[in-house]
Amino acid sequence: MSGLFDLRRPIGRLPYLVSVTALFFSQHAAAVGLAALAGRRVALDAQFLLTPFRVVASLPMAGGAIAIPYMALMLVVASAMAVLSLRRAVTGGHDMVAPTLTVVPVLQIPAALWLALGPRGGFNLKPDGDAEPTAAAAATQGMLAGMTLTVIAVAMSALVFRSYGYGLFIGSPFLIGLTTGYLANRGGPITIGRTLKIVTGASLLGGAALLASALEGAVCILLASPLGLGIAILGGAIGREFAVAGRRRSRPTAMSVAVMPLIFACDVLLPPLVAIDTRQTVEIAAPPAAVWRALTSEAPIEGRPAWPIRLGLSYPLRSQVVRAGVGGERLGYFSTGVATERITDWAPGRTLAFTVLDDPPVMRELSPYAHVNAPHVKGYFHTADTRFELTPTPGGGTQVVETSRHELRLDPALYWLPMARLAIDGNNARVLASLKDAAERDAGVAPRPPVVQSKPLFAGAD
To answer: Residue 262: its pLDDT value, please?
Structure first.
């Protein structure tokens, strides 16, 4: 394993090409295997070649049970490809541009082919006599460069490209860690532990700078930090090895700024879209008429939201039927604003369904500023439609089935999917529990703890 991370250990064209090809297609093999377990066939098209993780995100299985292991596989593959690619860059005299692109979906294919088949870069692998900074100055340069690149990456991705994908959450942290680790060791090798502390410090300073510049809020930084910091630490370890290998002519900061637009443009060309279908059921000891009155009431939704939602995620407060009947208007009042809805099915005592025309922001960011320049709070998570089915049960009760469809437009979808599921299920369960209490009070039934049954269904990812 230590030999794998030794960038001074040569690797030829053919061994490199065979190794990265096997690593790359291991993701496809895992996706095909998981799809087979779910009884689905995979279309072997260009989209599957470039983004096999979209197939996994669409499988009808529990989110965390599939998303987390496959996400871990993707990170292992990206890490191994990055290390092998940097070894190949040192062997072939290339700079760091192509190796850094091998961690980004889509771009990793041409980058790996260039390293395997392209001409030698012609760079000197030994020190070229330039004056090197002291160890303290190098560490300071590395930390400041990492902080600056963090702000540049978020501003470029969010405000210019309007993209929240692999470029922002994987490509940019890797570049930032790589740059920080390289610069921190340019004045002479320091320990891997100290290098990673500098990378972590740069990431924390970057997060503070995002808050100070109103580019992000604390909630989003907190949610993204496990993934971003982990990738940055990986990049920092590799950047250290690159500096130790003697690549004094590399200019990682300028290279990172130059490469970022290419990575973000790739996200724009292949935008994520994962549909999340849910189904939850509750038994209510009240007749359908009482349940219908509670369902169409303007009374506040009772119960306290779960603690993860209280961190700032949007949760429902009450609803209002402005105009009844099919084609009518319904308003959903949330902690972050008002959703405008059009009624698509209206059968008193039996069915209520509506399509969401306009969502409120998905979260309220924690920030010292009244306004945060974070486009992801609006439009990157959308509730498409919701349906309530009321069925009489023996003994005069009612079974209520709530189904809903949501659209997630964030990558890596496999990372965000479990969090989205947690918020959706928590909000739906709270709505059904409040509906049960209100209907049973209306029917004069003593309240009992609700039993809400959830069945996750993930529909196709485009």
So the answer is: 83
